[in-house]
Design brief:
Elements: H1 6-17, H2 28-35, H3 39-45, H4 49-60, H5 62-72, H6 79-101, H7 108-140, H8 148-164, H9 172-189
Length: 203
């Protein structure tokens, strides 16, 4: 880790520790030791362990969020296609992060806590981006809906909770049924014909 800057070394250290430990059992001292820096250096960059974790989540979603912001400006692509592409990128990032950074020994409350942080980050960061895409769809006549922010939030919450499948575990069939229901509601709410948004099932 010596060749990296201290900020990234701290994040890498927590990332490594999360592979075998739960977040609650990891101390700032242990993060400093794993990063091979003094404990005092930690507080120069981060005020708390929670702040380190938040920065780690942010770094994990850096590329998907960059993709989302770039897609928001590409009005030549269907708004629903862009919504699907954005969430697919974030879903892949989230799945890899959860798979590699949380071990099987982590209990259900810890997994629920981690998942809540991921969902919160996705919704807060992507809601304005998706809302802008929806507004573009409204201007283009592809979407007929008068509350773009609400629609963006509903889609993000349903998809993140169901597709990450770590708060209440359900079968693939149940997940697909929920997504199919969401698609049906989207088609009706945005005045798109039945079946026109079925491609979203691929996410």
């Amino acid at each position: 880790m010596q060749n990296k800057n201290k900020h990234d070394r701290i994040l890498d250290a927590l990332q490594m520790l999360l592979r075998t430990r739960s977040l609650q059992t990891i101390s700032v001292s242990e993060i400093a030791q794993a990063a091979e820096i003094g404990k005092g250096s930690i507080y120069y960059y981060f005020p708390s362990k929670d702040a380190i974790f938040e920065a780690l989540i942010e770094r994990s979603y850096e590329e998907p969020l960059k993709t989302a912001k770039e897609l928001a400006s590409q009005s030549s692509i269907s708004p629903f296609t862009r919504m699907a592409m954005i969430f697919q990128a974030c879903r892949n990032s989230s799945s890899e992060f959860l798979k590699s950074e949380t071990n099987t020994a982590v209990d259900a409350p810890e997994k629920a806590f981690l998942h809540q942080r991921y969902v919160s980050h996705i919704v807060l960061e992507l809601k304005p981006v998706l809302a802008e895409i929806i507004r573009q769809g409204i201007r283009q006549g592809e979407i007929h809906f008068d509350r773009p922010e609400a629609l963006a939030e509903i889609v993000l919450i349903v998809l993140t909770v169901k597709l990450d499948n770590s708060i209440v575990e359900t079968s693939r069939e149940e997940v697909r049924d929920t997504i199919a229901g969401l698609i049906s509601l989207l088609e009706k709410g945005t005045e798109n014909p039945p079946g026109s948004l079925n491609f979203l099932m691929a996410i």
